[in-house]
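dude i think i finally got it to work??
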Amino acid sequence: WGAKNLVVRRSEDGGATWGPTIEVGDGIHAGGTTVDEGTGDILFFGHPEHPPKDSSMAPRTIYRSSDSGRTWAGEEAVFEKDGNGHVPSLHFSEVGITLRQGEHARRLLRPARVYVEGAGYNMAVFSDDHGRTWRPSTPFPVDGTGEGCVAELEDGRIYYSSRQHRFSEGEALLHERLHAWSHDGGATWTDPAHSSLPDGPAYRGEEGRGANYNGHFGMAAGLTRVPV
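look at this
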């Protein structure tokens, strides 16, 4: 669950060829790389371990590149606790985005999650100072979620697509992705529902923890973004 090798490769021809490995820094990286479209900086996130032993205390390091990924410098960013007293983990989430519309334009927003005993939950973190301070959103409205992704829609809403790992006793073990919406730049999430988008094979009845567990994985956190 994560090797300590923060490295990147660069392509200058649209991904047809790739250059040599570039060392970024120490730690474990598992998603969430974000381009700040306001400055051009690339933000790369690292943890010392996975999962964090204490989600309230584990350090989170940002590695920043201001030259299109050629060189990187680490910085300790501030990540505020959520309403439940947890600092979100940055692992196993999709890339972040720069919001382009409305009063929160230029805000950096990326999915995140909280590891706690039991279910845990998805959420997001956002920054209005180019990635130096990160504030937590409210939790995704369904517990037992993880591995999420976000996209800004043309009407300004933020779409959140989430996997559900765990289910309450008696709850239907659905294998479709969950989605929810934000109308305030990713600070809160509402109207959760299972979509028609499958997330791996249907539950096979061999485990009691749902369709998206122990080898049943399908889409992970992936979300293809197209201009709509």
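The chain has a mean pLDDT of 84.
im so relieved honestly
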